[in-house]
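Example: Flavoprotein.
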Amino acid sequence: MSETPDTVVVVGAGPVGLAAAAHLTERGIGFVLLEAGEHPAAAVRQWGHVRLFSPWRFNIDAAAARLLTGAGWIRPDDGELPTGAQLAADYLQPLADLPAIKPHIRYGARVTAVTRLGLDRVRTAGRETTPFLVRLADGTDVLATAVIDASGTWDLPNVLGSSGIPAHGETAAAAAIEPALPDVLGRDRDRFAGRRTLVVGAGHSAANTLLALADLAGQEPGTTVTWAIRATDPTRAYGGGEADALPARGAIGTRLRAHVDHGTITLLTGFGVQRLSPAGTSIEVSDGHRTVTADRIVSATGFRPDHTMVSELRLDLDPIMSSTRRLAPLIDPNEHTCGTVPPHGVDELTHPEPGYYAIGAKSYGRAPTFLLATGYEQARSVTAALTGDWPAARTVQLNLPETGVCTSNPTITDDTTPGSCCS
Ligand SMILES: Cc1cc2nc3c(=O)[nH]c(=O)nc-3n(C[C@H](O)[C@H](O)[C@H](O)COP(=O)(O)OP(=O)(O)OC[C@H]3O[C@@H](n4cnc5c(N)ncnc54)[C@H](O)[C@@H]3O)c2cc1C
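Written out as structure tokens, the predicted fold is:
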């Protein structure tokens, strides 16, 4: 065992876990931040080549900015759209390296389970006063008074199979399947150059990859690009073009449509992946009626929260979204884009298990409407509640402009394409 039970455990040193660390520091609460990767922002670095769709002003937590500024940090230009790599290098790494935070972070510390010391999920007596037990992959146990789970969803991509379970042959074909957002024009170029790639998915991760592949096809003979979506009409994936409320999103859709119109990208609509079969060194992908032969398949079908590590805690999960039930209607992608999610805090994030809060991308479950700015407000509200400062916890201060959060007169300093989760 390590840590005294007056410690808050934060899981994940992504942007939201680090924001929680900043708020805990300001409030003088002891904490330990457990990060599976060897650096802060391990997930963000994996999509470091993608440009965010929201400018710096919405990507920096207020408490983090105060601590950083006090240490002489130069704030990036509020209007610029950073890449994931810039978000990590220019903000998250300096934040994690602050003397007030660095000693409390453990890297290479993957949490495998969170429970109550000596109590399983069924035992009620003494539950509220019993410390949390946080188990790491190396077998170490850490005790905590509260757990803030900011472990994101990046590690659990959706499957290709259109029924929500792996398609027949999907597991066996794993070597040919890429998770979302490979760095097609950079690090991962060799895997795509001169090869046939099938991209599955209709969101902006798919769009970003498709545009990069279309560029590659212009540079490398033999590179072909096929795009499969379940919908029978691609209009929603294209966004609103020049009339789109989010200019960067509109620009992506317009470029995508042009590539489809010109035949650089072959679009298959109404295509739900049912089966993958090996065909020599390639893979045949079928929807039961049609078959596409590809060398590489990019699975851009979204992400899921992993609740297995907290399965001994008492959670009240929405049956559709896998967020808390109270949060679900506020983030429902059928009703909201990221810019229209209403502000929310500790009350919407509370589970029946007192002292456990999932915040950040994980808190949204399967909803793709998460924004850093809402995650930072979650961190502020939850840490205020942990000190008993309920007036501050319940005064939800977030005020996002409905459209400007995704691009607000942004300054783009090169020609990379902004990514987007606003779908
Ligand atoms: C390509 C892309 C572009 C985006 N662009 C924007 C944008 O422009 N604006 C915006 O507001 N949002 C954007 N988002 C959405 C969202 O803000 C990001 O996904 C953000 O990284 C979520 O932050 P997080 O801290 O919740 O989770 P993450 O960044 O995923 O961080 C989670 C951390 O937890 C660690 N971890 C995971 N499991 C464990 C474990 N079991 N034990 C210990 N550590 C663990 C991971 O290694 C990681 O470091 C974008 C997302 C993507 C994918």
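The first helix runs from residue 15 to 27.
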